[in-house]
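Subject: design request, 308 residues
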């Protein structure tokens, strides 16, 4: 096995008209990784089960979870999700969250684990928005802490959109450090306060982006000395992205992952142990599906080169 990759067979189920693209990437990416030999069939695992209520409720309110599972959100709350609310959608989110939890436990053995889905960072404690119903990395972070698998956690969110839900969830918690580097002009237009926010101007190019990241990330890891790192590696930073406003190229996005994953691989905990890493895919909405797949596949190629 190279490293474990969560894959959710429920994504094979067709979505309603108008919501199929770009969600087809969840089906195509595993095929590409297998075809080119970046991953083997044995690298992939399905989530062990739907994420159970007790794990979800360490992050989300009981009222929200109850109404979500009963498909009983009010019209305004349901509209903010961006998808038609149905049982299949709720199951997908529960599988995503469990895939991230399972990946975390596997990362202690393999040092890194990937989730073909996930990165649902717009989900707040009491509501979801922007295609995010339940915050998978927040749920997994609380799982690790509850089971005493990690004490201090670092969340590195390099999606083009600020991780507003993640920031809200951990806003008063020093045990989880939230870092979001995102487009200043992008959704959400009312930002939350992460522990560290870097808001980049429209059309930020590769050089400017990478210089900023080089300046911040290694020192941040050394300062926080986390026991576990979550990485949200959205590829909506590309200049072609329909929902992004940055100006990065495909090569620049790959260099971002090379630098971030290399920094994680070099870091050590207070006890001089390697830090386990869990990566969730995040966004990617370029009009050309081949470009989306190539950008996401680069993340896995880089991870293979660094960690195997």
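Subject: RE: design request

Done. Sequence follows.
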């Amino acid at each position: 096995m190279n490293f474990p990759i969560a894959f959710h067979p429920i994504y094979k189920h067709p979505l309603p008209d108008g919501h199929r693209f770009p969600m087809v990437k969840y089906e195509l990416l595993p095929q590409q990784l297998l075809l080119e030999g970046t991953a083997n069939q044995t690298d992939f695992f399905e989530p062990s089960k739907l994420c159970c209520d007790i794990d979800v409720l360490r992050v989300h309110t009981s009222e929200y979870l109850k109404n979500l599972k009963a498909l009983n959100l009010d019209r305004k709350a349901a509209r903010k999700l961006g998808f038609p609310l149905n049982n299949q959608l709720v199951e997908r989110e529960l599988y995503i969250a469990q895939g991230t939890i399972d990946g975390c436990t596997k990362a202690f053995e393999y040092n890194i684990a990937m989730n073909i889905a996930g990165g649902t960072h717009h989900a707040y404690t009491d509501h979801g928005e922007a295609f995010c119903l339940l915050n998978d990395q927040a749920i997994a972070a609380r799982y690790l802490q509850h089971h005493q698998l990690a004490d201090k956690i670092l969340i590195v969110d390099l999606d083009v959109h600020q991780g507003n839900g993640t920031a809200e969830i951990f806003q008063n918690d020093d045990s989880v450090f939230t870092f979001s580097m995102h487009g200043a002009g992008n959704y959400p237009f009312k930002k939350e306060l992460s522990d560290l926010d870097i808001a980049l101007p429209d059309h930020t190019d590769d050089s400017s982006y990478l210089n900023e990241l080089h300046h911040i990330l290694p020192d941040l890891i050394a300062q926080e000395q986390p026991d576990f790192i979550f990485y949200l590696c959205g590829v909506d930073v590309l200049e072609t992205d329909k929902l992004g406003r940055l100006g990065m190229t495909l090569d620049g996005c790959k260099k971002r992952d090379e630098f971030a994953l290399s920094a994680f691989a070099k870091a050590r905990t207070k006890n001089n142990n390697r830090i386990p890493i869990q990566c969730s895919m995040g966004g990617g909405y370029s009009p050309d599906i081949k470009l989306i797949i190539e950008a996401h596949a680069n993340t896995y190629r880089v991870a293979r080169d660094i960690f195997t």
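The first strand starts at residue 5 and ends at 6.
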